[in-house]
Amino acid sequence: MASVAVIGAGVSGLTVAYCLKQRGTSVVVYEAADRVGGVIRSERQRNYLAELGPSSMSAPSPATANLLTELGLDASIVHASPEVRNRYIVRRGKLVRLPLAPAELLTSRLLSNSAKLAVLGEPLVETGDSPVDESVAAFVRRRFNQEVLDYVVNPFIAGTFAGDPEQLSVRHALPQLQALERAHGSVMKAYLKSSRAQREPAKGPGTAGGLISFRNGLQELTDALGRELKAEVRLRSPVTQIRTGPKGWTVGAAFQTPELYDAVIFAAPAHALDDVDLDLAGGERLATLSSIIHPPVAVLALGFPREQVAHPLDGFGFLVPEVERRRVLGVIFSSTLFPERVPSNHVLLTAFAGGTRDPDFVHADSHTLTARVLDELRMLLGTRGEPSFRSLQVWPKAIPQYVLGYGRFKDIAEQAEQNNPGLALAGTYRDGVALGDAIASGQRAASRIGKFLGIEPVAGGIPAAGLH
Known about the structure:
The chain is of the alpha/beta class. It is built from 17 helices and 21 strands.
C-alpha cells in the first residue's frame, strides 16, 4: 500500500488526506496545533454561534459538492438569507448602500457625479498596453478613477485580503478583472452581461453563486474530515524536516522519529516553511515561499439585544475604505447572514481589524482592542450598552498577500513539484484565498499525487478529468 505524508490539517490538508485515504492510500497528517481546521473556527456559546475565521463559503463546485455528500453534510447545509444581497460602504462616517445595478448607480450617494461618469464611461477607455504585472490600484485608476478605487475597490480588498490594492497584483489577486478587460475590452461591459444573466430564473436554492454554511458552522466541514481521518492525524507535531532520497520521502517532526513515505504533500501555510529543513531539489528556492506576506487579523464577534442596535442590519455587512481612517476593516451582520445563530431578539456582529492597513492594532491587549471596536460600532451602527456576548480570535499570520511579482512564488512552487516527483503543494498561497479555493487546492494535490502513485480516481469528489 502506498504511503503519503500530509503536512498541515487545515481544510486543504484534510481534503487531500481524505481523498487519498478514500483511494486506499495510507496517509499520515502532521499538524503543529492541537486541533484540526486551521483558520476555520466556529464557536457555540450561550446560544450564539460565531465564526472566528471565514464566515461562509460560495456555492460549492461539483467536485466539492460530491465531497460534502460523501461526508454526509448535505442535510446540514444552510443557505444565506436573501437579505444579505445588500452591502454597505462607509462614507463620511455613514453607511451607504453599494449600488447593485447600473440604474442604482445614478442615484447612489456613494460616489460623486465625476466618479459615476468614470464608471459609466469605462467602456470607452481603450485597453492599451497594460503592464505585465499591474497593481490592483493602478488598474482601477486606469480604467476608472481614484474615487472608485478609494470607495469601491479599496474596501473590497480589505474585506477579501485584508490587504492594500497599491501592493496587490491584479494578475494574481483579481485575475478575473484582467480577464474581463482582455475578453470584453471593458469591465463594465462584462458586468452588464453578467447582470442580465443573473436576472434569469434560478434553478434552485443555493444557485447563482449563493453563500452557504452548515448548521453548526463551517467547522462542521473540517470536523467531519477530521473524524474520517482520526487515526491518521498527529496533533502537536510540527514538521521540521522533509528529505527526498532513493527510497522515497523522509519526514521528521518534533519529538518523533523520522518516517519514510512514498510521497509528501505540504499543505501548511507558506510561512511555516521557515521552520522546515528542506533537503530536496530546489529546497532553498522553495523555502523563499516563507517570505510571502501574511498580515495579522483580529476577528471580534459581539452579540447584542436587538434593541441596542439602531441600524436595521439589512444586509451582509459593511466595509471601510482606508481614507475613512477607522480601526475596523469591516463588519459582517452575522445574524442577518444566518439568522438561526443567535438567541431570540438578539443580533450578532463580527468585526475584522488589522491587516496590512493597521497591523499593530491587532497586538493591543484584548480590552483595548474590544473597546476601540465598540467605539466604532456606536458611531457607525448606533450600538449602545455592553454586548451580551463577545469572543476574540487573533490570527497572527492570516491571509497570503498576492503582491506585485507574486508570479515568482507560483513559479517556484510549480518548479519544486516538477523537480521532485512525489511532492505536491497545496494551500491558499497557490490559487486563491477563499474557502472553496483552499478545498480545490487540496483536490488538485490529491490528483497530482494520485497520478504519481498510479491510483485510479474513485472518491473524494474528484472526477477523472481532474487528473492532469
